[in-house]
UniProtKB/TrEMBL annotation:
One Pfam family here: Arv1
InterPro entries reported for this sequence: Arv1
Subcellular location: Endoplasmic reticulum membrane
Name recorded for this polypeptide: Protein ARV
Length: 251
């Protein structure tokens, strides 16, 4: 008959399938895990223990989102693994567009400060509006070249890490999420101060540190290789900036 004693039940089959897929990751050792917790009903939950390091797979599932955000700002690898592997965040595209808008707005303001023309003519206002769109396009191209430089370096140095299309997509999502620091550009300009240029420089450094941590966590690399990839990405990005400047564009 079909109901032998040794035949696995439905939940056991599902458990085996999830374990084979490695649906989640341990935030401590980056090992694959089938589940984050066991639900014993009546509100009783038990966090799963990692088979590799014998620590809780993801302690952050019990934490308040504010605590997780603070840990992410502190660039803790565990928080990054929780966000990238164990949550279903799908705001990569929207976050990228908003960050680019912030950067374009900063550049547009600096461009307006450099031009002393205060004529309220409609043609002038129209030109200023197109200046903003141009800054958005330039910021987009620069970020794209920065990411391309990172991908080329990582693919050249560790081709085994980026074998599948899903590997590239996961790394791209991680890089897009790790640019969230650019959102700080707006308050830095709203509360303009003598130290604003220094603040903008700190924000740039923070974004690069976040990018490095995202690469390290996603591909499970050491600390040196992500920075090497970022350095090459910056070279490519600055090459694009020099190209725009030779074309006579204000960037």
């Amino acid at each position: 008959g079909g109901g032998g004693v040794g035949a696995p039940s439905g939940p056991e089959v599902l458990w085996g399938a999830m374990a084979a897929l490695g649906a989640y990751r341990c935030i401590e050792c980056n090992g694959e895990a089938a589940e984050l917790y066991r639900d014993y009903r009546r509100g009783v939950l038990r966090i799963s223990i990692c088979k590799s390091c014998q620590k809780p797979v993801d302690k952050y599932i019990e934490y308040d989102p504010v605590i997780i955000l603070i840990n992410a700002v502190l660039c803790k690898a565990q928080a990054y693994r929780h966000i990238l592997f164990n949550t279903k965040i799908n705001i990569h595209g929207k976050l990228c567009i908003f960050c680019l808008l912030c950067e374009a707005y900063i550049r547009w303001l600096q461009l307006q400060d450099s031009s002393q023309n205060t004529d309220p003519d409609d043609l002038i206002r129209y030109a200023k509006e197109w200046d903003f769109y141009r800054m958005f396009g330039i910021a987009s191209l620069e970020q794209t070249s920065f990411f391309i430089g990172i991908f080329i370096t990582l693919w050249w140095m560790t081709p085994e890490m980026l074998k599948r299309k899903s590997d590239f997509i996961l790394l791209l999502k991680a890089l897009l999420l790790s640019t969230y620091g650019k959102l700080l550009l707006i308050p830095a300009v709203i509360w303009e101060h003598d130290y604003t240029p220094l603040c903008l420089a700190f924000i740039k450094v923070f974004v690069l540190i976040s990018n490095s941590q995202a690469i390290r966590v996603t591909l499970n690399l050491n600390r040196i290789l992500p920075w090497f990839a970022i350095f090459f990405g910056l070279i490519l990005e600055n090459g694009v900036v020099c190209l725009f400047q030779k074309m006579g564009w204000d960037v």
